[in-house]
Design brief:
This is Thiol reductase thioredoxin. The chain is an alpha+beta fold and about 150 residues long. The chain has one domain: Glutaredoxin (3-Layer(aba) Sandwich), CATH 3.40.30. Helices cover about 35% and strands about 25% of the residues. The protein contains four helices and seven strands; from the N terminus they run αββαβαββαββ. It has a five-stranded mixed beta sheet, with helices on one face. A hairpin with a 4-residue loop joins strand 4 and strand 5. The termini are far apart.
């Protein structure tokens, strides 16, 4: 093979890898809408919002994620953070379709998955997801959503 063709192929592969890396980086840590399925796990707190983090022992971004989610939980009344180590509970990875760690599920007071974050979360997006849940309550009789007042 001629050297110019080889160089062109190598440059093309580097460009492709760069584009794929940028796409992956842009998608990593983004909040996606939850499927509203209910999470039933022993030991989950009775909270208005639960930040359920799935981690492993060897996950480097899990430590700063734990700190971030813990901080957000302490900043907001009614928000709790729970970290589950999948090293010791691997069956939960399949059950909750965890393909990477950290993965964070944002649960409402019923335990419904309202948001899902794969990878290290962005603080502004987690705060927005939490505020979206804390800022609304569901009327059990009608299912209507109304904003919370300061007295609720």
């Amino acid at each position: 093979m001629n050297p110019v063709a080889t160089l062109a192929i190598l440059l093309g592969l580097v460009a492709l890898a760069t584009v794929l890396g940028l796409i992956w980086r842009a998608a990593n840590g983004r909040v996606s809408a939850g499927d509203q399925s209910l999470v039933r796990l022993p030991g989950l707190p009775d909270a208005r919002v639960t930040l359920l983090q799935f981690s492993t022992d060897v996950c480097a971004p899990c430590v700063p994620t734990r700190v971030l989610l813990g901080t957000i939980a302490t900043e907001n009344e009614g928000v709790q953070h729970v970290d589950i180590d999948l090293t010791h509970r691997p069956e939960l990875a399949t059950r909750f379709r965890v393909l990477q760690t950290p993965t964070t599920l944002v649960l409402d007071s019923r335990g419904a998955i309202r948001a899902r974050i794969g990878g290290a979360p962005r603080a502004t997006e987690v705060r927005a997801a939490v505020a979206g849940i804390l800022g609304a309550t569901t009327d059990a009789a009608t299912g209507a959503t109304a904003p919370r007042t300061a007295t609720s």
